Amino acid sequence: MAIALVLVLVVVGSVLFHALSPWWWTPIASNWGYIDSTLVATFWITGAVFSAVVLFMAYCVYRFRHKEGQKAAYEPESRKLESWLTLVTAVGVAAMLAPGLYVWKQFVTVPKDATEVEVVAQQWQWSYRLPGADGKLGTSNARLINADNPLGINPEDPNGQDDVVVEAADLHLPIDKPVKMLLRSIDVLHDFYVPEFRAKMDMVPGMVTYFWFTPTRTGTFEVLCAELCGTGHGFMRGIVMVDTEQDYTSWLQQQSTFAQLTGPAKVGALADQAKAVAAME
Amino acid sequence: MVDVTPHGADLIPPAEVGEMELYHPHSWWTKYVFSQDAKVIAIQYSGTALAIGLVALVLSWLMRLQLGFPGTFDFITPEAYYQFMTMHGMIMVIYLLTALFLGGFGNYLIPLMVGARDMVFPYVNMLSYWIYLLAVLVLVASFFAPGGPTGAGWTLYPPQAILSGTPGGTGPGIILMLVSLILFIIGFTMGGLNYVVTVLQGRTRGMTLMRLPLTVWGIFTATVMALLAFPALFVACVMMLFDRAIGSSFFMPAIVEMGEQSPHNGGSPIMFQHLFWFFGHPEVYIVALPAFGIVSDLISTHARKNIFGYRMMVWAIVGIGALSFVVWAHHMYVSGMHPYFGFFFATTTLIIAVPTAIKVYNWVLTLWRGDIHLTIPMLFALAFIVTFVNGGLTGLFLGNVVVDVPLSDTMFVVAHFHMVMGVAPIMVVFGAVYHWYPKMTGRMLNEWMGRFHFWVTFIGAYLIFFPMHYVGLVGVPRRYPELGDTAFIPPSVHTLNEFITVAALTVGFAQLVFLFNLFWSIRHGKEAGDNPWRATTLEWQTAGTPPPHGNFGKELPVVYRWAYDYSVPGAAEDFIAQNDPGPATQGGPA
């Protein structure tokens, strides 16, 4: 008997918790409002199903609990009822899947005008690289990484000379401009995760992964690593600041390019190393 | 469909397995230790699984203490936290749940329920347990190895699993973990082949496949899946062992480790993930399908009503089993694999919701117009439905690829999989133990302790994991030993974490009452008799309780009907055992 009451309380409690809970997602700061809407729609559909199933159970337990002389019905199956339930479920599932796939199509289709920004992760810090005036990132290779070239940029690639290197510091992004985040790791798996942007993606050594978004709100946002990367995982934080166009430009002007950072003397040594690596491969 | 042989029909007489063909134990050692009796092996498997499960339970307390009260316990360093987390996950999924459902319940119930004297290969069955025990001991040994056990997470993703930034990565920890898994798989394969062949070849006369109790269908399908899925984990473990021990590069690309160029080159970390989840997702159903089967029988027996839609239930089990092999990459939506995989795997993943939902409908429809006895097994079965529906529905969030993007790697995922493959199957384990303990020991478990255990466990577990979803929704990542000062995490999240910790410790305490009950009732429980629940299936019709070696008396039972003849109109009793030849069933749709 108590169990019927508890089942009702589970439903009422869960719904109230959901409605009154102060724990909800962070205010969005990107174009992925569609993701939030799909999530809310999923909450409605699944919430209704959960309440219906558990309340029906509670009713059954209350109504059909054992009493002296009671006998259960004998009904092995009902083709009709089972077919209907299957059909309704399939429709409900399709109603969630269709918008999900539609939004996923957008998520994986990077707009042509998106600016490329590279994020390089290592245990346990974040670095960044922006294409310079030419708008192109130079090639890179993990074998080229050393103290003078922490991101492994190819010194022989002319596209890389004007790349802006932001080592272990904050990243700035201009508001309302789509960006394609190119993700690279030099050691283990990491994941570039800013809750307010909704998007995230693992960073895998040996390959370049990506996702895209458009920042829609200025402010300071915390970067967290979302893929277990060793003992420092919980402390692998960074900052992304979304700026107005003006603030962004003035920040960018204070940054150094790869050529500036390495200087003419070091470029020679790095280029020799690049040749050696190329010969090895 | 009511599958009953009409009374008086000529049945082929049982092809009796000669009593002499069974190897009977001659000494205490061969009866209780190196036993070839599936029932003894079942209890050995269950005892070992519960013992190592207790370790996992304590590890979960330590993790919750750290998450609820960060900075209070000096000995829980990030290294230690990751080691607790890894070992907790690995033990619960593999060494407890898989071993308990297949090695424990599978061994005990398959021969009894299909009407066999034992498993078809008793000697291999015995070896299966001893290799499992060895796997557990190797796992335990890693706690005492220099550097401690691996802290790579139960997913063991390379490269970090074998590098110095991870606890146990460059010490013996990871090697012992991989060796233990390899041993487990070898041991499991020996048992698994037994379960499959026994179900296919060891059934008694009249026990057609479509008369098998759903418990057997669940365990059988899960075993077939495990035999197909575990080899993927096996090769992944062997390859990673090579990468770690002899410097091969299966999963290791060119990397820079702590400022040093590593000698590895050309390997693929994502390949490991595909292999791992090709095993890992079926693994979810390897745990879930036996639970589905067992809970069906618990509900039917204790509601005194046939399971609704038996044929649909069987096909749903088989369908889920097959589909679960084409959904694995939904664990990898944000892994960096080709994004177009997302379309395929989201679709297959949501399709699997349909047969799963059918099972839920049929459980609750079995309650409809039943004669519900609120016994402890029934209470746990109800708790299973609630937690399983809850956890299954949050799976629709995570399976729907784009909704997964913000939620993946957050506490939402932790809450989801604990609800659906932690709490829900464990509710079935408890229900099943209260249900079959009387057959295993001849005595009932103490009712008062049982009800206390149920209420604290059900309500407590829900209070742990339901609010945890919202911690994830806020954006709190999983696998963080502490949150520190993070702007988007309000102080109320810390309060909620304290609450969850208190709930977790309370639920943990209730499990000690359960363990105590298991021992106490062996001597002090109420006498159970042969068939205390008045159930139809063959294990309740044995000669004596606990059943002797050989299970049945001089002759094997002959089966005349399906497993669900409860409350048959016109019958004298509200159940007709499967080996009861009459009266013929009247009514019901043909």
TrEMBL record, chain A:
Signal peptide: none
Keywords recorded for this protein, A-Z: Copper, Electron transport, Membrane, Metal-binding, Translocase, Transmembrane, Transmembrane helix, Transport
Stored InterPro entries: CcO_II, CcO_II-like_C, Copper_CuA, Cupredoxin, Cyt_c_oxidase_su2_TM_sf
Organism field: Aminobacter anthyllidis
Name under which the protein is recorded: cytochrome-c oxidase
Molecular function (Gene Ontology), one example: cytochrome-c oxidase activity
Pfam family, one: COX2
Main location, first listed in the record: membrane
BP-aspect Gene Ontology terms: ATP synthesis coupled electron transport
Similarity comment: family membership: Belongs to the cytochrome c oxidase subunit 2 family.
Compartments in which it is found: Membrane
Transmembrane segments: 41-62, 83-104
One of the record's GO cellular component terms: membrane
SUPFAM superfamilies: Cupredoxins, Cytochrome c oxidase subunit II-like, transmembrane region
Membrane topology qualifier: Multi-pass membrane protein
EC number from the UniProt entry: 7.1.1.9
Catalytic activity: 4 Fe(II)-[cytochrome c] + O2 + 8 H(+)(in) = 4 Fe(III)-[cytochrome c] + 2 H2O + 4 H(+)(out)
UniProtKB/TrEMBL annotation, chain B:
BP-aspect Gene Ontology terms: aerobic respiration; electron transport coupled proton transport; respiratory electron transport chain
Localization annotation: Cell membrane; Membrane
Gene Ontology MF term list: cytochrome-c oxidase activity; heme binding; metal ion binding
EC number: 7.1.1.9
Keywords: Cell membrane, Copper, Electron transport, Heme, Iron, Membrane, Metal-binding, Respiratory chain, Translocase, Transmembrane, Transmembrane helix, Transport
Bilayer disposition of the protein: Multi-pass membrane protein
Pathway in which this enzyme or protein is active: Energy metabolism; oxidative phosphorylation
Domain called Cytochrome oxidase subunit I profile: residue spans: 23-560
One Pfam family linked to the record: COX1
GO CC, any one term: plasma membrane
Catalytic activity: 4 Fe(II)-[cytochrome c] + O2 + 8 H(+)(in) = 4 Fe(III)-[cytochrome c] + 2 H2O + 4 H(+)(out)
Chain segments annotated as transmembrane: 40-62, 82-110, 130-154, 174-200, 212-242, 275-296, 308-328, 340-364, 376-399, 411-434, 454-473, 499-520
InterPro entries, per database record: Cyt_c_oxase-like_su1_dom, Cyt_c_oxase-like_su1_sf, Cyt_C_Oxase_1, Cyt_c_Oxase_su1_BS, Cyt_c_oxidase_su1_bac
NCBIfam families: CtaD_CoxA (TIGR02891)
UniProt similarity note: Belongs to the heme-copper respiratory oxidase family.
Function: Cytochrome c oxidase is the component of the respiratory chain that catalyzes the reduction of oxygen to water. Subunits 1-3 form the functional core of the enzyme complex. CO I is the catalytic subunit of the enzyme. Electrons originating in cytochrome c are transferred via the copper A center of subunit 2 and heme A of subunit 1 to the bimetallic center formed by heme A3 and copper B.
Name recorded for this polypeptide: Cytochrome c oxidase subunit 1
